[in-house]
Specification:
alpha+beta
């Protein structure tokens, strides 16, 4: 579960945490895509040890894009998620750790169980 408005609060309190990014693009040679060599120094002039990704912030925009129709199949959606994750990792180029946080059905079930328990407690009062 995310913290509502945390990014807005952080970016207002610490405006220097947001910076422009130089993004290297993959190239195509003889019909084959050659990915960005992330072992080279970061073109942005900053090196990062860690990158922490909350996949909810990636899955939703990939499954419900604002600038194009939604993916036709689940495979197309997964491909979009993987491409975007690769793109972010290539921009940041973490040197030690890439942590990907994924929420799923267990979280939903836990919340449903908690809501049910709260409902039962309210009924008992």
């Amino acid at each position: 579960m995310g913290v509502p408005a945390l990014f807005r609060w952080l970016s207002q309190k610490y405006p220097k945490i947001i910076s422009s990014v130089i993004e290297e693009k993959s190239t195509e040679i003889d019909g084959h895509e050659v990915p960005v060599d992330t072992s080279k120094p970061n073109p942005n002039g900053e090196e990062f040890d860690n990158l922490y990704l909350d996949m909810n912030g990636i899955v939703h925009p990939c499954s419900h894009p604002e600038d194009r129709p939604p993916p036709a199949t689940e495979g197309d959606m997964m491909r979009a998620i993987f491409e975007y994750t690769d793109r972010v990792a290539a921009m940041v180029r973490p040197r030690k750790l890439l942590l990907i946080a994924v929420g799923g059905y267990l979280l939903v079930l836990a919340l449903a169980q908690e809501n049910y328990a709260n409902f039962v407690l309210l009924q008992m009062e």
